């Protein structure tokens, strides 16, 4: 089933202990699409400036990513810069130049309006609401947000959350949104705001899924010896997760569990190289192999 993604398309300048890149391809919608397109067709809505080289997205076309919704506006492309600390867990934002993203008003092309699955990447909650007002009865809506919107646009966020099925969010953002320091209690508070499934991303500590019936499923992060750049790992995770759910169509509980592992699998590849370098030509075989390594790593027998 097709997925509509609305979010940033960016040029990132990133420094990690392992090197740096300037104006490298990035943006939440790009990372999401690169991962989700391994499973399902994607309709992308975003904006770039006249300085953007569309050829950098050409790897997405054979993977069924429709880029007709990518607007080219007069001005410069959104740019973001970040520097990571030694263990890659901490990150300072060096700059956020919104440029053409500042005036971005997502217009959903008619041919995208009936997309079955929707992923609202990290943009202003007012815009996320606006997108939902333009689409016709999607099967499933997932949303990402960040501390910036929780602090600055809480009312709008609380208006959009009742229309959302799955919230994908960091552990620190759960605590902030729920105003509760216990993650489990926080997840319950957020479920009462609307989304019935809460996916809590915990960086190198993996991800926790809190389901509608308040049962849990946890995935570790894949233990990697060589990490390079964590930028986009969260959006890549969301891409693997939602991409697989869309492939399933009417996902069961077991599908949701597999989806959490696919999200973890894709994000583990993302961090191995800078920018989208690893996701550009990752094969289905590599994905299947790592998925199975997750299974080997976590399977155990019930107590006797
Ligand atoms: P993550 O590492 O999951 O936080 O995602 C990083 C990606 O998000 C980068 O490629 C950035 O270009 C993009 N990004 C950073 N800040 C913002 C923002 N305020 N709005 C939209 N996208 C952003």
Task: Outline the fold blueprint.
Elements: E1 3-6, E2 10-16, E3 19-26, H1 28-36, E4 42-49, E5 65-73, E6 79-84, E7 91-97, E8 117-120, H2 125-134, E9 140-144, H3 147-152, H4 154-160, E10 166-170, H5 171-178, H6 183-191, E11 197-201, E12 207-210, E13 216-219, H7 233-248, H8 253-270, H9 284-298
Parallel strand pairs: 1-4, 1-8, 2-6, 4-5, 8-9, 9-10, 10-11
Antiparallel strand pairs: 2-3, 6-7, 11-12, 12-13
The protein binds adenosine monophosphate.
Adenosine monophosphate (AMP) binds at residues 8, 10, 12, 26-28, 80, 96, 122, 231-235.
Fraction of helical residues: 25-40%
- When the domains are counted, the total is 1
Low-confidence segments? none
Give the ligands present.
Answer: adenosine monophosphate
Largest sheet: 9 strands, mixed
* Reported CATH architecture: 3-Layer(aba) Sandwich
SS content category: alpha/beta
Radius of gyration: 18 Å
Mean pLDDT: 97
Explain this structure.
The longest helix is centred in the C-terminal third of the chain and has 18 residues, at 253-270. This protein has one domain (3-298): UDP-N-acetylmuramoyl-L-alanine:D-glutamate ligase. It has helices spanning 28-36, 125-134, 147-152, 154-160, 171-178, 183-191, 233-248, 253-270, 284-298, and strands at residues 3-6, 10-16, 19-26, 42-49, 65-73, 79-84, 91-97, 117-120, 140-144, 166-170, 197-201, 207-210, 216-219. Helices cover 32% and strands 25% of the residues. It is built from 9 helices and 13 strands. Helix 2 (125-134) packs parallel to helix 4, helix 7 (233-248) packs antiparallel against helix 8 (253-270) and helix 8 (253-270) crosses helix 9. The termini are far apart. The strands form 2 sheets. A 9-stranded mixed beta sheet has the order 5-4-1-8-9-10-11-12-13, sandwiched between helices. A 4-stranded mixed beta sheet has the order 3-2-6-7. Adenosine monophosphate binds at residues 8, 10, 12, 26-28, 80, 96, 122, 231-235.
């Amino acid at each position: 089933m097709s997925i509509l993604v609305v979010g940033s398309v960016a040029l990132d300048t990133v420094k990690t202990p392992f090197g740096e890149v300037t104006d490298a391809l990035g943006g939440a919608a790009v990372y999401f699409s690169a991962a989700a397109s391994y499973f399902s067709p994607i309709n992308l809505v975003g904006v770039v400036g006249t300085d953007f080289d569309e050829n950098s997205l050409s790897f997405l076309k054979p993977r069924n990513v429709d880029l007709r919704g990518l607007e080219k506006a007069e001005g410069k492309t959104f740019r973001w810069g970040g520097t990571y600390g030694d263990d890659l867990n901490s990150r300072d934002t060096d700059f956020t130049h919104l440029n053409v993203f500042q005036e971005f008003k997502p217009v959903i092309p008619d041919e995208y309006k009936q997309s079955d699955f929707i992923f609202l990447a990290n943009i202003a909650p007012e815009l996320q609401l606006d997108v939902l007002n333009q689409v016709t009865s999607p099967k499933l809506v997932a949303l990402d947000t960040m501390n910036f919107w929780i602090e600055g646009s809480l009312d709008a966020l609380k208006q959009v959350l009742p229309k959302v099925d799955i919230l994908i969010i960091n552990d620190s953002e759960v605590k902030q949104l729920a105003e509760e320091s216990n993650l489990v209690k926080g997840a319950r508070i957020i479920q009462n705001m609307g989304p019935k499934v809460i996916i809590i991303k915990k960086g190198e500590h993996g991800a926790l899924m809190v389901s509608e019936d308040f049962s849990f499923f946890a995935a570790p992060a894949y233990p990697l010896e060589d990490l390079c750049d964590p930028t986009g790992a969260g959006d890549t995770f969301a891409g693997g997760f939602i991409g697989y759910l869309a492939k399933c169509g009417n996902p069961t509980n077991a599908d949701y569990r597999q989806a959490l592992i696919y999200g973890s699998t894709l994000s583990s590849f993302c961090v191995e190289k800078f920018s989208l370098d690893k996701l550009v030509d990752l094969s289905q075989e590599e994905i299947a192999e790592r998925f199975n390594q997750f299974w080997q790593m976590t399977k155990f027998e019930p107590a006797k």
